Amino acid sequence: MITGTGVTKTYRQRGSILGARQVPALRGVDFAVPRGGAVSFIGESGCGKTTLGRIIAGLETYDDGDIVIDGTSMSGLGHRARQPFFRRVQLIHQDPYSALNPTRTIHQTLSAPLALRARQTGRSRSWTDERAEELLSLVGIDPGYVLPRYPHQLSGGMRQRVVIARALTMDPDVLVADEAVSMIDVSLRLGILSLLKDLRVRLGVGVLFITHDIATARYIGDDSELYVIYRGQVVERGPTETIIAEPVHPYTQSLLSAIPVLHGLERPGEEQVVPTEALDEGRADEGCLFARRCPFVTERCEHEMPVLGRGGGEVQRHACFHPQPRSVIPVGAGQ
Ligand SMILES: Nc1ncnc2c1ncn2[C@@H]1O[C@H](COP(=O)(O)OP(=O)(O)OP(=O)(O)O)[C@@H](O)[C@H]1O
Ligand code: SF4
Ligand SMILES: [Mg+2]
């Protein structure tokens, strides 16, 4: 189980004539990835998804809050002491073309991490070849065909499967899939999504799925939980199917009705909610972060910041003063 409490990250970006600009990438995010569970983070570009994924994978630091892996707080540990925990969380990159070294065969690509794993677990060197074949078969490709080949000799879908096999060499508890299907041909996307779902069942590995496309989150599993992030804040959270069927936060509704989804698999519903104003990054962060784009904004929203409810038995939580369920995608679409 991996949990995060109040995870906060602010970047300083140089380049402005007024000096460094503070960019709040994450504003006190709480999350939980249960063992073997599936969690999706969705939101538009720049909302902090990758930052959160990299923090969970131990590739990025955080300024405040805590990450707890199986009961151990990462905040109290030094860099070295954290490493064994972060082996358990492996990142699958968005771009299968740049993720693999073009000068190495797939055999070489898998052998290096497997040799390390063999040393860590006291296995013999010969185990690595056996394990490479096993992992490639597990991700649905023929080891005999793929092992001697270079990345450029494989299709995008095959490369992404190799990237997933490489992530599995470390026996992770959780795979962080950051836009893992966005650069793959549409016809091959469902295959990769089903593979991730299948790995959950067969290996009990948890999946943390990062996407700007709410519909792909559906294909990770019926029991998955969805986190909708807007400008670094989780604005709605709950069971994926419930949120897609009845989103209560206006931002979630606008994401669903804008529908940049797996083309042909989802259709917009009756009630479309279109943001009324483009995002103004220069605005101070008083009040609701979504206020300038929200069609339902009131005086209160301008001055007070809504916070996400903390459980209390509620499965669907939101950070909005005026939540109202609206159906923006017909239930069952694309199934
Ligand atoms: N290394 C960095 N230095 C400075 N600012 C950064 C850095 N990484 C991210 N940011 C900023 O933090 C914010 C969140 O970025 P992040 O990459 O997490 O967003 P994202 O949701 O993954 O976006 P996308 O959908 O485009 O991948 C953005 O405003 C981005 O410009
Ligand atoms: S709090 Fe107000 S501005 Fe923010 S999303 Fe809800 S209705 Fe819109
Ligand atoms: Mg990103």
UniProtKB/TrEMBL annotation:
SMART domains per record: AAA
- A Pfam match is oligo_HPY
Q: Does the keyword Magnesium apply?
A: no
Q: Which CDD domains match?
A: ABC_NikE_OppD_transporters (cd03257)
- Tell me a GO biological process for this protein: peptide transport
**What PANTHER family does the record point to?**
ABC-TYPE DIPEPTIDE/OLIGOPEPTIDE TRANSPORT SYSTEM, ATPASE COMPONENT (PTHR43230), ABC-TYPE DIPEPTIDE_OLIGOPEPTIDE TRANSPORT SYSTEM, ATPASE COMPONENT (PTHR43230:SF3)
Q: Which GO terms describe its molecular function?
A: ATP binding; ATP hydrolysis activity
State the PROSITE patterns in the record. Answer: ABC_TRANSPORTER_1, ABC_TRANSPORTER_2
Any idea where the ABC transporter domain is? 2-256
NCBIfam families from the UniProt entry = oligo_HPY
The keyword Calcium belongs to this UniProt entry's keyword annotation: no
Name of the protein: ABC transporter ATP-binding protein
Keywords of the record: ATP-binding, Nucleotide-binding, Transport
Top-level taxon of the source organism: Bacteria
